[in-house]
């Protein structure tokens, strides 16, 4: 910092600024310190620089007067606005990352309090950050906009480096937890009992991430999109789905219920991932189910998801026993002809003769060996879900395929 001031001498004397600094408590003390620094390091500081250093000392004193929790609380509304805007603009939810919120709050508080002085990074360059961490850099620009709106403070380009590093760290944390089931604990007992439940569940189930533990009152005020399911010791109002009620002692039956729910959640996550990259098409003028299958496999071929023998394996499977269930068909081929697991869902406007029924919706599933080995029960679970009567009746009424509706119907 001293080197930057000596080389740049950017802080010119301003009468209004000087007057404000002279009115600061302990100005004389700060002035003596600055004079000693100027002499010791032979800085040849201008008067404006000296006053600015006095200002920095006053800010540091003010900064240290607040502890970390107070700084976090003070910045809480702004942090929430930042994360909300990131979620809306970039479709990534960081609300449950407490480490990010704490680190960002303290960093922003210190930055704003410094009043515009930036310490240059000797390790990172902004061009490197943009190239290596473009997503994190976008988050930093969103943050800068919100800070400018709330505090009229405009970030320098160099200051965006440190913001980007905060966000990239959060992104890395999110990646490491991507495959884990997110669980929220709701407990009506004291902190000691809550901590015991949290630690027991962590020790028993290694593939879950506990995103928080809250009282019923706090839970009811929370956003409801930050977890996969809830484990609660007390009945929750208006919560009929995605809740497992357990004894505070976590009995054997509780463990079995949690295990079953974890498997269900894993299946749902996998289905959601397949749907996100899946294809949804409408087919007209198909006279046979073979015509339908050819159109659907074309989608897989375009994405290089299957090899050239996959279509034959699907048709041969249908010849053994058609996969229609009333007005829905669930054809599939051999896994060794699948390059990448995929799903194609087709709506046949006029229907097509399929076995002994007329089919309007076709779910063509291509699961590779890796998926089936890692999730041996997924195919059977998927098939059973589609085959359920309530799912059938609901799907039959869908003229267009809605991803979210499908997930809701099946899980």
TrEMBL record:
Name-wise, this protein is PRD domain-containing protein
Q: Where does the PTS EIIA type-2 domain lie?
A: 273-411
The processes (GO biological process) annotated in the record are: phosphoenolpyruvate-dependent sugar phosphotransferase system; regulation of DNA-templated transcription
The taxonomic lineage of its organism, from the top, reads:
Bacteria, Bacillati, Bacillota, Clostridia, Peptostreptococcales
Outline the extent of the PTS EIIB type-2 domain. Answer: 181-270
Which source organism? Paraclostridium bifermentans (Clostridium bifermentans)
Specify the domain of life of the species encoding this protein: Bacteria
- Tell me the keywords, alphabetical order: Repeat, Transcription, Transcription regulation, Transferase
Extract one GO molecular function annotation from the record: protein-N(PI)-phosphohistidine-sugar phosphotransferase activity
Q: Which InterPro entries match?
A: BglG_antiterminators (IPR050661), PRD (IPR011608), PRD_sf (IPR036634), PTrfase/Anion_transptr (IPR016152), PTS_EIIA_type-2_dom (IPR002178), PTS_EIIB-like_sf (IPR036095), PTS_EIIB_2 (IPR013011)
